[in-house]
Amino acid sequence: MAIIASNFKTNHTRKSTAAFIKEIDSFIKSNSIKNEIMIFPTATSLDSFEISENLKIGVQNAYPVEKGSFTGEIGTQQLDEFGIKTILIGHSERRHILKETQKQIAEKYNFYKELGYTIVYCIGEPLEVKKLGLEKTLEYLYEQFENIDTNYENLILAYEPVWAIGTGVSATNEDIKAVHEAIKKKIDKPLLYGGSVKVENVKEICSINSVDGALIGTASWVAEDFKQIIENTKDL
Ligand SMILES: O=C(CO)COP(=O)(O)O
């Protein structure tokens, strides 16, 4: 069983998201796909979708609050309207571009953990850290687990090296294997790989023993491609 997830980031409209989800759902049904498929659309495209059990819609980000005065944020009141129970936390774009600190990330994690959300928790190192070697890379990655309960039952991890995100250059299988095996030794949770996963390499990457699936950006935004990705991994 693999977990295949699409992170829309800041792409697609409400209309194109609905069409995408419908298309993916009918593909899942007509091809008897058993893997767990996840889609993370923009917050403005969330809705109540009548879809297969194994297709989950998640939110890319939310504030650790039910409701209140937090201009520009959304909380569980808005997520509950659509029955959203899956959230991405710790994505590198939020850490680096939006400057979320580990403290804020941990607060968010603990809040959504208490509510039983499925949390896809992302970790990853920038290029300057990777260049220092595996030991330093792991040290850096483990710091991203500060105040994070890694025994949480609904936790899915995603290793996304920052230098491989959106660059078209995925980590090598050796790099992925080394990091995944080390993390797996410490934390017994599903561990996805993300960073320039595409139609052509998804099967090979997801076939690595310590890889439980993929979290995909760019290559998943065209429905035909995402269907091909789902097809290529359906026997894993
Ligand atoms: O950040 C990612 C998924 O969360 C990966 O993005 P790309 O697939 O575009 O490299």
UniProtKB/TrEMBL annotation:
The active site is at H91 (electrophile), E160 (proton acceptor). One of its GO terms (molecular function) is triose-phosphate isomerase activity. Pathway: Carbohydrate biosynthesis; gluconeogenesis; Carbohydrate degradation; glycolysis; D-glyceraldehyde 3-phosphate from glycerone phosphate: step 1/1. It comes from the Bacteria. The keyword Isomerase applies. The keyword Zinc does not apply. It is an enzyme of class 5 (isomerase). Substrate binds at N7, F8, K9, G166, S196. It is found in: Cytoplasm. Its EC number is 5.3.1.1. GO terms for biological process: gluconeogenesis; glyceraldehyde-3-phosphate biosynthetic process; glycerol catabolic process; glycolytic process. Gene3D superfamilies: Aldolase class I. Keywords: Cytoplasm, Gluconeogenesis, Glycolysis, Isomerase. It catalyses: D-glyceraldehyde 3-phosphate = dihydroxyacetone phosphate. GO terms for cellular component: cytosol. Belongs to the triosephosphate isomerase family. Homodimer. Involved in the gluconeogenesis. Catalyzes stereospecifically the conversion of dihydroxyacetone phosphate (DHAP) to D-glyceraldehyde-3-phosphate (G3P). This is Triosephosphate isomerase.
